[in-house]
Design goal:
globular, Protein Transport Mog1p, Chain A, 182 residues, 38% strand, single chain, 7-stranded antiparallel β-sheet, alpha+beta
Length: 182
């Protein structure tokens, strides 16, 4: 009886909601562990949701198209590799994109032997009451990482609705810590 009770208690104590992560090769230089149900985002889907002049290296979304991960080349490069200055620059850029930003964590850390800038935040973008379908503010949870190379900056982005932050924050961190760069 005691072993059965132990197994029942153990089953409630172990987290089971975390999605299973699988290795995804984004390019010859980049791989990452993503939830197994994530699928590549189409070019049109990416352009509509994340307007940019540059095509992404790789963009993935969950089946409901609510949770996204992408890798992109930034238009900004930092040949001197000054991570602290670059971090301030990217933080200012994030603050200018939204009506309100609450930073949860930020800094420079090492991921699999590479130094990356990271910004974790919740954002609010006011809705436009003059257009139909866009009346409520958009609340998002985001985790960004920046890999500076002399000739380019690679931006890794995880995004989900703020209401799903509690469910996805731990997974976002696992995804970002799994990035492998050559």
């Amino acid at each position: 009886m005691k072993p059965l009770l132990f197994l029942v208690v153990l089953s409630f104590a172990l987290p089971t909601d975390d999605p299973k992560l699988v290795k995804v090769k984004i390019s010859d230089q980049i791989s990452v562990m993503l939830p197994e149900d994530f699928v590549p985002m189409g070019d049109l889907d990416f352009q509509e949701r994340y307007p940019s002049v540059r095509k992404s290296i790789g963009a993935y979304t969950n089946p409901d198209h609510e949770i996204d991960f992408s890798a992109n080349i930034s238009a900004t490069s930092w040949p001197d590799g000054n991570l602290e200055m670059a971090q301030k620059f990217f933080k200012a850029g994030v603050m200018n994109m939204f009506d309100r930003v609450e930073f949860l964590s930020e800094g420079v850390h090492e991921v699999n032997g590479k130094k990356l800038i990271y910004l974790e935040f919740e954002s609010r973008l006011k809705g436009d009451r003059s257009t139909l379908g866009n009346q409520e503010p958009v609340l998002r949870y985001s985790y960004l990482q920046y890999w500076l190379e002399p000739s380019r900056t690679v931006v890794f982005s995880f995004n989900c609705p703020a209401r799903m932050k509690q469910d996805w924050q731990g997974t976002a961190l696992k995804i970002m810590k799994s990035i492998r760069l050559k």
